[in-house]
Amino acid sequence: MPDPRTIGDLALEVRSKNAGPFWVTMELFMRDAEGYALVADPGFLDAPVVARLYGVPADTIQIFRIPALNVVKISFPRPVSQGSLRDRDIHAGQHHVPLALYPVAAT
């Protein structure tokens, strides 16, 4: 595999979904412990980074690190409630893209 360039390159799967009508959850399923160690490092992926990617206040972001599963889970309030007139992604299924495209240093 060529040197990874994005979180998506290091992950088995990066996905997003609703966590109720008012929250979005994104999950990073990393291929191995090394990839997990990189994305789980608060110096690499933290609330201010997620805030910049998604335009949400950093103090509303919750990050859960699950080393036994090589998974990082990120939740934050939806910009508009699910199903509202301005909701452009009712299932929050496309919210993962900016995170998947977030660059990492080549290893």
Would you kindly provide a written description of the structure presented here, covering whatever features stand out?
By secondary structure, the protein is an alpha+beta fold. The chain has one domain (7-87): Alpha-Beta Plaits (2-Layer Sandwich). It has four helices and four strands, in the order H-E-E-H-H-E-E-H. The protein has a four-stranded antiparallel β-sheet. The longest helix is centred in the middle third of the chain and has 8 residues, at 33-40. The radius of gyration is 14 Å and the shape is globular. The mean pLDDT is 87.
Give a topology summary:
Elements: H1 7-10, E1 11-18, E2 23-30, H2 33-40, H3 47-54, E3 62-66, E4 71-77, H4 97-100
Antiparallel strand pairs: 1-2, 2-4, 3-4
In a few lines, what is going on in this structure?
The chain has 107 residues and is an alpha+beta fold. It has helices at residues 7-10, 33-40, 47-54, 97-100, and strands spanning 11-18, 23-30, 62-66, 71-77.
Attribute tags:
107 residues; alpha+beta; Alpha-Beta Plaits; 4-stranded antiparallel sheet; 26% strand; DUF4387; DUF4387 domain-containing protein
Head-to-tail CA distance between termini = 11 Å
Tally of helical segments: 4
Number of strands: 4
CATH architectural grouping: 2-Layer Sandwich
Going across the major beta sheet, what is the strand order? 1-2-4-3
Number of domains: 1
Which structural class do the helices and strands define? alpha+beta
Uncertain ranges: none
Shape: globular
Tell me the series of helices and strands, N- to C-terminal.
Answer: HEEHHEEH
Q: Would you state the CATH class?
A: Alpha Beta
Tell me the CATH topology: Alpha-Beta Plaits
> What is the helix fraction of residues, given as a range?
10-25%
Please give the largest β-sheet: 4 strands, antiparallel
Radius of gyration: 14 Å
